[in-house]
Amino acid sequence: MAAKAASRTFTCSECGWTASKWVGRCPQCQAWGTLEEGGAPRTRTSALAPTSPATPITEVPTTASVKQPTGVDEFDRVLGGGLVPGAVVLLAGEPGVGKSTLLLDVAARAAEAAAQSGRAPVLYVSGEESASQVRLRAERIGALHDHLHLAAESDLATILGHVDSVRPSLLVVDSVQTAADSQIEGAAGGVAQVRGVTSALVADAKTRSMPVLLVGHVTKEGSIAGPRVLEHLVDVVCQFEGDRHSPLRMVRAVKNRYGPTEEVGCFELNEAGIRGLADPSGLFLSSRRENVPGTCVTMALEGRRPMPVEVQALIVPSSGPPRRTTSGLESSRAAMAIAVLQSRLGLDLDRCDVFLSTVGGARSAEPATDAAMALALASARLSRPLTAGTAAIGEVSLTGELRPVTGIQQRLAEARRLGFGAAIVPRGTREANVKVPGGLALLECDDILEAAAREGLA
């Protein structure tokens, strides 16, 4: 009789679900082609004596987790104050958005701070470029420092060897998709390789209390390349966003074990490098002097930071099927604003091409932009400019009602700081314990029809 074949197990690389036979789609996470053979099932793990006893949480020291500023204020804002020793941060973004430039600048500033405080140097490992190429970029952006060590390696064992030799106070790996472990089958960037490399770097970071910054690639859909478990392994996941045709770059944390996830860091990328923008307002407002029809400013919240967004609308007669084009705004909300204007204000937009855009590459998908979109559209259709120095903040419902939005206090304060003298807001804003900044007139309206009437558009 033939010997009984050893049982096999298949494990999903995305969620860890296991099965006794291969299937094309994981029933747990619905991912296709992610089940990999894992060999014979493991036996039950025996209990071992702990090397150190469990400690009451009130007696655990916190001095080892004090955050260290990186020297880049906007990056520290996103991290929640700085880097925690032993933390692993993944910075993901599209090619050419400026990930390597930002982390090279962070590495140079951290090296300068480490030299002044007598700490170990910073190690920058590049798996995508040669050492001379990284040196050229460092010269261009002013990121040269003797305390910054550079290595061009893609083999995990060699990278860990450099870490043993330098014993850095900060490790930067550019990128995790180019590093490979010779003990794991598959090419660099594969699911198994990314998981194995990241696990090894996380373990080394925790053992040495060494912060690690990892560069991550994204897919064409904008999600982080590699297995979903990659985001679970690291402590902080940051998305680096920006339009290639705009100098504005934004870093936002989508996961942060040591701080908030609603903060946003703003940067300006140019030929001289990248610099933080503590006040990016000037990038989002046009510099024209005269007031023209079809424009309205609102105050959007990026995390907890209020920023101005100027909405511009253009309406022209259509020579065919009417077009609806948006840039920087959510197309579905723009379509609803057009429908409300047609229904509540009686504006004829059926035979017109409608174009909506923001200034400076700003993006806003929150409902607070609705009022500005509707007023900009009405202003463009009637060729009447809005009152100079007026901002509009509020959500527009399908009935035309102006509805309150979150963070109105911060939005009004930012509007006044930028010199706006009036703000169109939903009715009841003043009664909601909102402190109105001095010099800012609050124009409360029940619906978009009343708001348009105040501006002579209805």
Strand and helix layout:
Blueprint: E1 9-12, E2 18-19, E3 35-39, H1 73-79, E4 88-93, H2 99-117, E5 122-126, H3 131-141, E6 148-151, H4 156-166, E7 170-174, H5 191-208, E8 212-216, H6 229-233, E9 236-242, E10 248-256, E11 264-270, E12 273-276, E13 295-302, E14 305-317, E15 324-327, H7 331-345, E16 352-358, H8 370-382, E17 390-392, E18 395-396, E19 402-403, H9 408-417, E20 422-426, E21 441-445, H10 448-454
Parallel strand pairs: 4-8, 4-9, 5-6, 5-7, 7-8, 15-16, 17-20, 20-21
Antiparallel strand pairs: 1-2, 1-3, 9-10, 10-11, 11-12, 13-14, 14-16, 18-19
Could you describe the 3D structure shown?
There is one protein chain. This protein is of the alpha/beta class. It folds into three domains: 31 residues, no CATH class; 213 residues, 3-Layer(aba) Sandwich (Rossmann fold), CATH 3.40.50.300; 172 residues, 2-Layer Sandwich (Ribosomal Protein S5, domain 2). The chain is 25% helix and 24% strand. It has ten helices and 21 strands. The strands form five sheets. It has a nine-stranded mixed β-sheet with strand order 6-5-7-8-4-9-10-11-12, with helices on both faces. Strands 13-14-16-15 form a four-stranded mixed β-sheet. A three-stranded antiparallel β-sheet has the order 2-1-3, with no helix packed on it. Strand 5, helix 3 and strand 6 form a beta-alpha-beta unit.
